[in-house]
Sequence to fold (269 residues):
Amino acid sequence: MSPEKHVIEIQTGTKKIKVGDGSFTVIAGPCSIESYQQFFSTAKVVAEQGASLLRGGVWKLRTSSKTFQGLGGEAFDIVRKVTHEMNMGITIEVTDPRQIEELHPMVSMFQVGSRNMHNYALLKELAKQDKPVLLKRGFAALVSEWLSAAEYINQTGAPKVILCERGIRTFETSTRNTLDLNSAIYAKKNTPYPVIVDPSHGVGISQLVPDLALAATALGIDGLIMEVHPNPKEALSDGMQALTFENYDHLMTKVDKVLTALDRSIQRL
Ligand code: PEP
Ligand code: MN
Fold:
């Protein structure tokens, strides 16, 4: 199988980046947007070291209803201010089809979370709009189911799906998930979609994130999405897997070196 490869253009601030054209894209930011200061300081650090798109959760689908659910609409002003000040775009997870309209002007790319990969009502609504969609793999989804979900989004208009491998549930419990690099490279080689890897959710332990990020980089995929926080111990979600600014910096220097060895480079703004 040698499918025609999709190249997805993403507007980030006043610039455009491409994913799937051989370049390497880094998306980074906190799991959740918590405050202006937290988001702005993180955005500055990740942008200086190679990120061309920000990430940040607004509505969080947490396993327990008692934990932080995200700032919701209160995050919008922070998102607008920081993306404007940084001249950068953001990907935000959309958790409900009713959020698409209000998120549309704010995001460069919609994110569909692992828990929503099978939410066909959401996928069908995303098919009707024009912005790219980062489709995370369901944590118990087969590759074939992941690709079927992508087809729902891609059924109208120009190609707009980027696949994201973010770890699956296996019998192993020593790490949060099992980052399935097999499936990431399988999808890259056998489907038209660009593939991005999320080592943060994939392993769930910040100390191990850099190693898996480097392994994923060496695979030949299209980029990484990673969680970074100014003070992971105080993070309101996913602090266990967040990189500190310092660890992110160190990692990115190494990502650069791995890419250089492979005649590739990080796409910078
Ligand atoms: C996230 O990106 O913060 C997130 C919730 O990811 P996932 O849907 O992969 O769990
Ligand atoms: Mn997270």
In short: The chain has one domain: 11-60+67-255. The CA atoms of residues 132 and 160 lie 4 Å apart. The chain has a mean pLDDT of 97. The pocket of phosphoenolpyruvate (ligand 1) is lined by residues 31, 57, 113-115, 136, 166, 201 (CB under 6 Å).
